[in-house]
Amino acid sequence: MKYSVRSCFREGGYIYAKKADELPGGQDTNRVARLASNENPFPPSQHVIEAGIEELALANRYPDERPYRLISALRERYGDYHIVTGAGMDGVIETIIRTIVEPGEVVAVSTPTFSFYRIAATAHGASVRTVPRRDDFSVDADRFIDACQGARLAFLASPNNPTGNGVPPEVVRAILEGIEKSGCVLFLDAAYVEFSDLDYLPLMDTCGNLVIGRTMSKAYSLAGLRVGYAFVPGWLEPCYFRAATPFAVNRVSAAAAAAALGDREHIAGTRRHVSRWLAEFAERVRCPTYPSDANFVLIDVAPRTGDEMADMLAERGVLVRSCRSFTGLADHYIRVCVGDDWENEQFIEAINSL
Fold first, then answer.
1. Around 251, how many Cα atoms within 13 Å sit in the side-chain half-sphere?
2. Which domains, from first to last, does the chain contain?
3. CA 314, 318, 323, 325 torsion: positive or negative?
4. What gap in Å lies between CA 112 and CA 108, rounded to an integer?
5. What is the pTM of this model?
6. Left if phi > 0, otherwise alpha if psi is -120 to 50, otherwise beta: which for 153?
7. Which residues of the chain have pLDDT under 70?
8. Could you give the CA distance from residue 75 to residue 78 in angstroms, rounded to a whole number?
């Protein structure tokens, strides 16, 4: 062929959850429980919205090459760390790979987990080495360290998507110490850490091979604005911005994110809501549920498959995520996000009826 597509993109790709407008006809989309994408069911506060609107009036001008206002707000919130930004966590992941990994080098990934690590690494020409978790989805540090020998970069999510469990900081420290001499950098994806009591930032003070990825999409209710950031070692920060896509974070998103960081009550209220409903799911859902440090729960729906259960719930006006596409996870799980009260009640009634 004169025109061709790379083999890694001829099939596969990221698997998206179903949307309300894809449901069988006749359903009131306003009463569809959207529990498939790990979103925050509550909109951002009014002052966050106003901060974004104010910047919208300047949309004819490019944003700063680095969103200094956002970075300053992050440092005020968390401390004087080296911080980089991107268009969502995905943008940060892609830029870290672009900065560190040469085509043909190895990227290690703890599985089952977020599929974009593999997609982004493969797109860059890297070889992906998967490292299965234990049967209870905990991380075997020694096995992970062994798999990272010869790898340039490794991905570990905590709390993990889709299993929901967190990795204790002492285990992460052991991994960092075990891979340091090999020259491997650990990307710790902490997208859901605000829903937990886990704190990995103290590791940045002593570990020069750690990147902690974070996002404004989940706890801060800004999924639609695509703002990601990461704490990085000092040696990596200038290199990251050389490799980054120009003007990756738009000025509306940056302003809203900076404002959202000061809204402590929004985060506290969201955490209380999520904690209450995770307990409700564990108590009332008539299927085995796994403990979660995130804003979602993994549910075993055997003997049905994840696809079958997701389709049957969709017929009842409830969108959940089938976990079939998560490498290393058996095909009898669904992932369900905590939604608004009525959405959660609708889900519990629907799954128990099945």
1. 13
2. 7-43+264-353 (3.90.1150.10), 46-260 (3.40.640.10)
3. positive
4. 12
5. 0.93
6. beta
7. 1-2, 13-30
8. 5
